[in-house]
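To illustrate the input format used throughout this study, we show a single complete record. The first block contains the structure-token representation of the backbone; no residue identities are included at this stage. The design step must infer an amino acid for every position from geometry alone.
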């Protein structure tokens, strides 16, 4: 009886278990996150939220998606289609990438609930989403803003966001959808009748 070597057995088990897979689904993460949540460069776990927004006429609906990969990504592009409701559509006003700024000196006496990334990099400016690269184990938020015109018909509109690029020598493409529900409320013209600044000592 021919004896099988231990390395060959381990290799066979590895192949069966799938530990040698390098598909896009194992390396690239693209998930919807609440726009009010801050995403840092080192963020690896995301509190995913439905990519759905309620809006009135005259408002803007905003969405945030987190892109992260365990391998370097090159020539990445983001494509967004206008949300559709049958033949009607809402205009995508802005598709951006959240950039980071480094803080070298901490604020004296910071609040107890402060956000403090380990890397020292904070999300701040939103730049136009052109072609970009993403390093391994790095996170990049994608920001989408949809304008609700004053004559928009009420109903639910569905759009699509597509991220394309290269992982090594392979191309990858990931798609997701987002929804905007428009209500028959008009907020195109608003007035401010309340103030937070009031000093009785200056009335003399």
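Output of the design step:
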């Amino acid at each position: 009886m021919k004896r099988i070597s231990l390395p060959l057995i381990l290799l066979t088990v590895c192949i069966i278990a799938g530990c040698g897979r390098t598909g896009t689904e194992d390396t690239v993460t693209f998930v919807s996150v609440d726009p009010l949540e801050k995403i840092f460069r080192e963020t690896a776990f995301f509190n995913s939220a439905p990519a759905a927004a309620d809006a009135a006429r005259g408002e803007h609906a905003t969405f945030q998606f987190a892109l992260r990969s365990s391998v370097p990504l090159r020539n990445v592009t983001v494509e967004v289609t206008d949300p559709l409701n049958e033949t009607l559509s809402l205009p995508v006003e802005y598709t951006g990438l959240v950039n980071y700024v480094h803080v070298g000196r901490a604020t004296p006496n910071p609040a107890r609930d402060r956000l403090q990334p380990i890397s020292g990099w904070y999300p701040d400016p939103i730049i136009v989403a052109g072609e970009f690269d993403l390093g391994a184990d790095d996170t990049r938020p994608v920001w989408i803003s949809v304008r609700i015109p004053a004559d928009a018909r009420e109903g639910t509109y569905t759009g699509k966001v597509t991220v394309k690029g290269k992982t090594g020598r392979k191309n990858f493409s990931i798609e997701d959808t987002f929804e905007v529900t428009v209500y028959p409320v008009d907020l195109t013209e608003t007035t401010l009748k309340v103030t937070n600044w009031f000093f009785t000592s200056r009335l003399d």
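Structural context for interpreting the output: Residues 6-17 form the longest helix (12 residues). The chain has a mean pLDDT of 86.
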